[in-house]
Design brief:
By secondary structure, this protein is an alpha+beta fold. The protein has 4 helices and 4 strands. It has a single domain, classed as Alpha-Beta Plaits (2-Layer Sandwich), CATH 3.30.70.
């Protein structure tokens, strides 16, 4: 039983400190939109890198080790900039993997 509790706790901690935050964002229409989002998100000290895909309505953020950005903060930053956040997911995919997937999809 202790092993099950430990494994569950480890999974929860891992999810809370996931390295990548992926967001579905509507309202992205041009390169200027992408640049504005990147600039806004890079202001956060927990942000290590950002990828924005207009075609896939995707904004992905790599966070610094051991850091996270609350969903409310992300949603607020993007809605204040005029975008509509439809979903936020934390994953272990690297931004390099996301970039490669986006490149293959073109």
């Amino acid at each position: 039983m202790k092993k099950i509790i430990f494994c569950a706790l480890a999974l929860l901690i891992g999810a809370a400190n996931a390295a990548t935050i992926e967001m579905k964002v509507y309202g992205l229409v041009c390169g200027f939109c992408a640049q504005g989002i990147e600039k806004t998100l890079r202001k956060n000290p927990a942000t290590a890198d950002v990828v924005v895909s207009l075609e896939h309505k995707l904004v992905a953020i790599a966070t610094r080790d051991g850091q996270d950005i609350p969903d409310t903060e992300l949603t607020q930053a993007l809605t204040d900039a005029g975008y509509d956040v439809k979903g936020i997911t934390r994953t272990q995919r690297s931004l390099d993997d996301i970039r490669a997937e986006l490149k293959r999809a073109k």
